Amino acid sequence: MRLDLKDSRIFSAVRLMSSFRFAGNGLKLAFLEPNMRIHFAAGTIVSAAGLIFSLTRLEWCIIIGLIAGTMALEIVNTAIEKAVDLVTKEYKPLAGMAKDLAAGAVLLYACAAVIIGLIIFIPKL
Questions:
Q1: Is residue 79 domain-resident?
Q2: Does residue 89 contact residue 71 with C-beta atoms inside 8 Å?
Q3: Binding site per annotation, positions
Q4: Is the pLDDT of residue 3 over 90?
Q5: Is 74 tagged catalytic?
Q6: What is the pLDDT of residue 1?
Q7: At what angle do helices 57-87 and 13-30 cross, to 10 degrees?
């Protein structure tokens, strides 16, 4: 009996490598989006500030988590936008709501990240 590589119960190095290749391609696609480049630039600036102000290990963990979380949420937002665009090219209120909700989630998380960043960095000034 031939085993199907798409069967989720089967582990193989080929499937694992394919998964990493697909994920890497997803990251490349994400960096084509202007908002992702903005998040990356902000993360780079915050990381540089972290080096200048000698953050503690815990502070670095928090900052890295915030940067990665914001970028991951932006990728999910982009995926939702692309999926909605695939389904319909015409304006539909529910499609617009789905896109707005996903963008709102990114905005909420980014605002919380800024507040937490200020809590970490302001005492160091």
A1: yes
A2: no
A3: 15, 33, 74, 81, 99-100
A4: no
A5: yes
A6: 41
A7: 90
What CATH number does residue 47 fall under? 1.10.287.3610
Radius of gyration of the chain (CA): 19
The predicted-structure confidence for 75-97, as pLDDT tens digits, reads as follows 999 999 999 999 998 999 999 99
Q: Could you give the CA distance from residue 79 to residue 75 in angstroms, rounded to a whole number?
A: 6
Between 72 and 2, whose confidence is greater?
72
Q: Read off the DSSP letter of residue 124.
A: G
How far lies 81's CA from each of 33, 42, 96, 113, 123, in Å?
Answer: 12, 22, 9, 23, 39
Computed over every residue of the chain, the mean pLDDT equals 93
Length of the chain: 125
Considering the domain boundaries, does residue 21 fall inside one? no
* Given the residues 63, 74, 106, 120, the one annotated as active site: 74
Residue 109 contacts residue 81 (beta carbons within 8 Å): no
The pTM (predicted TM-score) of the whole model is 0.87
Specify binding-site residues for ATP. Answer: 15, 33, 81, 99-100
